[in-house]
Amino acid sequence: MAGARNLLCARAVEEMRLLFDSFLLFEGARATGAGARRMLYRADPYQIDLQVELSSDQSTLVITGQVLDSRQSVFSGRDVLVVISNLRGQVVLTMADQFGEFHKEIPDSDNLELFFLGLTDHPFTIAVGDPLRRQPEKKRARDVRDSGTRGKGGKKTQ
């Protein structure tokens, strides 16, 4: 019985396969983690075009994407629920519009996971990890900056 339950749980969320990653193409040029990252994922017959970039204030990830069904000549990815998590307790929800497009922001935590509900009887997931592949030195510098400054009495100020 436990084996059947584990098999069912393993099939309940299907991970999408990465077809394209702009950071893999330009690995040397993207070593600083600057710029937007473009990715293309597939789990037949669905395809997800994804772009992740850092907002101008450097504290938020901007996620833009489109859900497509390769079996359809006209768009069929509308009304797909997209759940975005930074794996630090922040979760945001959005729905794909009539063109299958979605756009949302979430606080940056160097980790990103997306779930797509409503495509089939089970959700698809994309585990991106550190979406902008920042170098350890860059992460440490940002962590120090984000820790805030200390005012009088050692209290954190905003």
Description of the structure:
This protein has 158 residues and is an alpha+beta fold. It has one domain (13-146): Sandwich (Immunoglobulin-like), CATH 2.60.40. Helices cover 16% and strands 42% of the residues. The protein has three helices and twelve strands; from the N terminus they run αββαββββββββαββ. The protein has helices at residues 2-12, 22-25, 136-146, and strands at residues 14-15, 17-21, 37-43, 46-54, 60-69, 81-85, 91-95, 101-107, 112-117, 124-129, 149-150, 156-157. Strands 1-10-9-6-7 form a five-stranded mixed sheet. Mean pLDDT is 78; it is low at 1-12 and 137-152.
Task: Describe the secondary-structure layout.
Elements: H1 2-12, E1 14-15, E2 17-21, H2 22-25, E3 37-43, E4 46-54, E5 60-69, E6 81-85, E7 91-95, E8 101-107, E9 112-117, E10 124-129, H3 136-146, E11 149-150, E12 156-157
Parallel strand pairs: 1-10
Antiparallel strand pairs: 2-3, 3-4, 4-5, 5-8, 6-7, 6-9, 9-10, 11-12
- Total E-strand runs: 12
CATH class: Mainly Beta
- What's the CATH topology label? Immunoglobulin-like
Rg, rounded, reads 18 Å
Helix- and strand-based class?
Answer: alpha+beta
Q: Could you list the spans in which at least 5 consecutive residues all have pLDDT below 50?
A: 1-12, 137-152
pLDDT averaged residue by residue: 78
CATH architect. name: Sandwich
Share of residues in helices: 10-25%
CATH superfamily descriptor = Immunoglobulins
The main sheet comes to: 5 strands, mixed
- What is the terminal separation in angstroms? 53 Å
Secondary-structure element string: HEEHEEEEEEEEHEE
- Sum up the overall morphology in one term: globular
